[in-house]
Amino acid sequence: MIHTLQNASLNILLADDDADDRYFFEKALNELSIVTKFISVSDGAKLMDYLSKNSENLPDIISLDFNMPRKNGLECVKEIKRNENLKHIPVIMCSTSLGDQIIDVLYSMGAHYYLHKCSFQEQIKCIQNILNMLMENPMQPSKDKFILNLQEV
C-alpha cells in the first residue's frame, strides 16, 4: 500500500539502463515536496532479482524504462503483475517513445501510468503529479488517464 503524506517517505525503485536517466530521476525526486527513498537498478533482470531478494522491504512504486537489456519493461510488468507479492505495487512506465499497441498492452497488463521522458524541469512536475495521484488512489486509473504529459500537470 502507498504511504500517506504523514508517513516518513515513499520508497521508489527505478529500473533504467541509462546512467544519466537514473541520475536525473534521482535529482528530480530530491526537488519534490514529497520525501522519497530512491533505489535504482540498471536493467530488468536486476530489478526482478532485487524484488525477489527484498520481499520484506518492497518499494512503494516502481518506475520502469521500456527499453532495457536482458529483460525489458514489458517483460518486467508481466512478471510483477503475475506475482501475488508484487502485483499491488504501482508501476510507472517511462520511455522516449512507444506505439499505441504497446501502450494498450502495458495498460492491460496493469501498469499504472506511462510517462514520456522529458526535460528535467518537466520531469520534476510530472513525477510530483504521479506521486500525488498514487498517494490519493493507488489503484490503476482509467485508460484515459494512463498517458501523462506536461499539459496534464
UniProtKB/TrEMBL annotation:
Signal peptide per UniProt: none
UniProt-listed SUPFAM superfamilies: CheY-like (SSF52172)
Keyword Phosphoprotein set for record: yes
Boundaries of every Response regulatory domain copy: 11-132
Keywords: Phosphoprotein
Gene Ontology BP, a term: phosphorelay signal transduction system
Modified residues (4-aspartylphosphate): 65
Pfam family, one: Response_reg
Protein name, per record: Response regulator
Taxon lineage: Bacteria, Pseudomonadati, Bacteroidota, Chitinophagia, Chitinophagales
